[in-house]
Every structure is written in structure tokens, then in C-alpha cells.
Design brief:
The chain has 131 residues and is of the alpha+beta class. It has four helices and five strands; from the N terminus they run H-H-E-H-E-E-E-E-H.
């Protein structure tokens, strides 16, 4: 039987997002990590690049919570299914969105991550139109 709570993904979402421990980013992500889906080309990558995304997200949203639904792990790969809830600071609106994060683990840290989250629904929940 699998134990999703024993994965690095679970630790990541619990410590970084639910507990708001930014210092855990350096503990759990390699400095050279490649991050797909939330960091665009030309932006700083690795743990420092992720911190930029993290701080920006936390500046826009409060009460961030990740409901860790499940995870699969094999060899050096893990995949987690999660649901985020948060409150948009500017409007006070609550948002909820789900997604998947696939990571490659190297030396006990995230070395590469592919993020597929439903940010379109966040924009829709906030009443924003995309041009």
C-alpha cells in the first residue's frame, strides 16, 4: 500500500504552502532546479526563482491552504494531486483550484518540477476576462 504522506511532494506542500515556511524551499529544492509551468523563460530558475513566484503569490493571496489529495512515487519521480484554496487580497474573494505537480528528485531535493494548475479558473473566479 502506498503512503502519499511519505513523499517529498507531501512535505513540500505541507511545509512551504500550508505552514508558510519559506526557508523550507532551500531545504527541499535544488539551487539548479528547472521549474516548468510557473516560471517563464528568462526568469531566474531554481530555488531563488521559485521564491520570486512564491512571494508574488503570497502577496496576492492570503489564507493559502493546499489539500493534498494523493501522490504516486516511483524511482526518482513523484506526482501529486492537490487543491489550493486562498483569498484574493485585493477583492477578498475566495478561490479554489486544482492541479498536478510532477517532480524529479535528485539527492533528496526537487531537481525538476512540472506544474499544471488551473490558473484560468482563478482568473474566472476573480471575474477577470482574458484577452
Amino acid at each position: 500500500m502506498r503512503d502519499a504522506k511519505s513523499t517529498l511532494c507531501h512535505r513540500w506542500f505541507q511545509e512551504v504552502w500550508n505552514e508558510g515556511r519559506e526557508d523550507s524551499i532551500n531545504d527541499l529544492m535544488a539551487n539548479h532546479a528547472h521549474i516548468h509551468g510557473i516560471i517563464t523563460e528568462g526568469q531566474t530558475g531554481g530555488s531563488e526563482g521559485f521564491k520570486t513566484f512564491y512571494r508574488d503569490f503570497k502577496n496576492q493571496f492570503s489564507d493559502v491552504h493546499v489539500d493534498f489529495k494523493d501522490a504516486l512515487s516511483q524511482d526518482d519521480m513523484e506526482c501529486a494531486l492537490t487543491n489550493f484554496t486562498a483569498t484574493h487580497r485585493e477583492t477578498g474573494k475566495k478561490v479554489s483550484f486544482s492541479g498536478l505537480c510532477l517532480i524529479r528528485v535528485e539527492d533528496g531535493k526537487i531537481a525538476e518540477a512540472w506544474n499544471h494548475y488551473d490558473f484560468l479558473s482563478v482568473h474566472q473566479q476573480l471575474g477577470k476576462l482574458l484577452a
